Amino acid sequence: MNMLFEYNWQVRQDWFDWCRELPEEELLSERVGGMGSFLKTLFHIVEVEYNWMTDLKQQVHPSYFDESFEQYRSLAQVEELSRRLHPQVAEVVSHWHPELEDRELQDSGPDGQVETHTYGEVIRHVIAHEIHHIGQLSIWARMMDRKPVTANLIRRGLGHTSPETNQ
């Protein structure tokens, strides 16, 4: 589990670095699919990861991140948000153990109805969610005739560092 989070964090940082080569208007340019733009997609990845991890920690919702993308309309702001929220996410990941797998979490679905998910389901959703959106960024990069960030898990040196060191 840790390795896949470390992978996502490395790839996210690679995308932040990649995005620095684009003018801000390209990052905000509306595109077909995904969350609509590079910057909105990166913001969404950070927001969803943090909110699910907050739920797994069972913190009270005042710490729940529910700010609007409009407050983070630059690459520097979204990257700083990612850095700021990372320690709380890394804490959940580093304390993951098999006994948490079947623990249940109550969540309000999009329609307001309460849903029950296992912690294992949620943590895997967070991993898959980021990979899904990173795929969208790769498609947009190719549509711009630019080489996307590599999605290769191999040769990243994963499994040799703790989650707290990969910010």
Describe the structure.
- By secondary structure, the chain is mostly helical.
- The chain has a single domain (2-161), classed as Up-down Bundle (Four Helix Bundle (Hemerythrin (Met), subunit A)), CATH 1.20.120.
- It is built from five helices and two strands.
- It has helices spanning 2-19, 24-28, 38-57, 75-94, 119-143, and strands at 104-108, 114-118.
- α3 runs parallel beside α4 (75-94) and α3 (38-57) packs antiparallel against α5.
- The radius of gyration is 16 Å and the shape is globular.
- The model has no long low-confidence stretch (mean pLDDT 89).
Features:
mainly alpha, Four Helix Bundle (Hemerythrin (Met), subunit A), single chain, 167 residues, two-stranded antiparallel sheet, globular
